[in-house]
């Protein structure tokens, strides 16, 4: 507790301003919600809005963590959007066709659906990791400009996913197994308020995102690998002089980042909706980069930035339910306005 208190009171001016903006923004969002919908949002409505904020902030947080892993090792990755889009398409396609194949093998639909979803998650994550390796090969080994490499990854993903969608997923598709079912985390879900928001009724990728927040922070700032990664990102020549393999470190971190981005992409088709549409990631990979910058390239800061964006989306959905007379374009602007601020 003493260490926590010391860190709290040793915050810089900028950190105090950021913390203040978050608190003020949360209060303002709650008041705005009640004003707009005429006080109809009771305690249950507020809890539902907060729970949905965590859910909707998940792909943004995972995109931000991908950026943290890459940029902490000195590799700029703006190809996160493409990696997520590829994972979303592969996840949906594998989920559907694995389910149909498993049913043909005599497996009951419930078991086939459960197995198909996990296979799809693995394959979706792997597809994003392949794009990450391509980005690493081009930008690390061939020394192509990292921004150009990331842009190429995004364009490649749009083309590949669009082609496979038109060829295999656009017409006469049978019903798939659906998305992952929600479940509670034992013990943690019983914690008042916090447990209800974070650990009740969420789905596997949301829980993996929460776990990764802690794991990435610990690995980056408390392990030999993490400290070497920070050294490689800050001063690669000095790190190389000390015997650190800079190239290998960057490749591993870019690969890990790709795996994390794949989780974010799989969220769209394995947790959010059981359908794939071209460009369905809708720029959230870039919003994740904004959350990463907001969070000062740290996992917990990035998580906070993602939650703010998720809260904006959640409030937008609540306003749309209670006040359908308000033009939908205005509430839909809220998450992006919050991101800019």
Description:
- By secondary structure, this protein is mostly helical.
- The chain has a domain at 62-297.
- Helix content is 76%, strand content 0%.
- It is built from 14 helices and no strands.
- Helix 3 (43-72) crosses helix 8 (204-222), helix 3 runs antiparallel to helix 13 (299-322) and helix 4 packs antiparallel against helix 5.
- It is globular, with a radius of gyration of 21 Å.
- The two termini are 32 Å apart.
- The model has no long low-confidence stretch (mean pLDDT 88).
Topology record:
Layout (H helix, E strand, L loop, with lengths): L1 H8 L3 H24 L6 H30 L7 H25 L4 H33 L4 H24 L24 H5 L5 H19 L1 H11 L1 H6 L4 H27 L11 H11 L4 H24 L6 H12 L1
Helix pairs in contact: 2-13, 3-8, 3-11, 3-12, 3-13, 4-5, 4-6, 4-11, 5-6, 5-11, 8-9, 8-11, 9-11, 12-13, 13-14
What distinguishing features does this structure have?
mainly alpha; 341 residues; 14 helices; 0% strand; 76% helix
Describe what is shown at a glance.
The chain is mainly alpha-helical. The chain has helices at 2-9, 13-36, 43-72, 80-104, 109-141, 146-169, 194-198, 204-222, 224-234, 236-241, 246-272, 284-294, 299-322, 329-340.
Structural class: mainly alpha
Beta strand %: under 5%
Taking the sheet with the most strands, its summary is: none
Cα end-to-end separation: 32 Å
How would you state the average pLDDT, rounded? 88
Query: Nearest-angstrom radius of gyration?
Result: 21 Å
Count of runs of 4 or more consecutive helical residues = 14
């Amino acid at each position: 507790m003493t260490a926590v208190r010391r860190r709290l009171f040793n915050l810089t001016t900028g950190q105090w301003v950021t913390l203040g903006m978050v608190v003020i923004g949360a209060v303002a969002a709650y008041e705005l919600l009640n004003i707009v919908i005429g006080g109809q949002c009771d305690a249950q409505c507020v809890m539902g809005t907060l729970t949905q904020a965590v859910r909707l902030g998940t792909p943004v947080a995972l995109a931000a963590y991908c950026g943290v892993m890459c940029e902490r090792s000195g590799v700029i990755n703006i190809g996160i959007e493409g990696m997520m889009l590829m994972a979303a398409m592969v996840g949906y396609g594998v989920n559907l066709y694995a389910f149909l194949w498993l049913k043909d093998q005599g497996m009951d639909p419930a078991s086939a659906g459960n197995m198909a979803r996990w296979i799809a998650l693995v394959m979706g994550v792997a597809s994003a990791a392949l794009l990450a390796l391509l980005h690493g090969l081009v930008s690390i080994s061939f020394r192509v400009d990292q921004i150009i490499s990331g842009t190429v990854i995004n364009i490649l993903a749009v083309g590949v996913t669009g082609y496979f969608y038109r060829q295999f997923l656009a017409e006469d598709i049978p019903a798939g197994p659906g998305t992952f079912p929600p479940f509670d985390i034992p013990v943690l879900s019983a914690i008042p308020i916090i447990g209800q928001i974070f650990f009740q009724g969420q789905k596997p990728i949301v829980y993996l995102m929460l776990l990764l927040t802690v794991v990435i922070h610990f690995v980056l700032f408390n392990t030999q690998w993490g400290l070497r990664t920070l050294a490689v990102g800050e001063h690669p020549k000095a790190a190389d002089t000390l015997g650190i393999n800079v190239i290998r470190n960057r490749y591993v971190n870019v690969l890990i980042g790709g795996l994390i981005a794949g989780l974010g992409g799989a969220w769209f088709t394995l947790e959010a909706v059981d359908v794939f549409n071209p460009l369905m990631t809708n720029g959230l990979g870039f919003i994740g980069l904004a959350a990463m910058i907001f969070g000062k390239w740290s996992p917990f800061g990035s998580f906070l930035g993602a939650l703010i964006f998720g809260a904006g989306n959640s409030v937008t959905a609540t306003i749309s339910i209670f006040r359908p007379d308000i033009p939908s374009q205005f509430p839909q602007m809220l998450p992006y306005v919050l991101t800019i601020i």
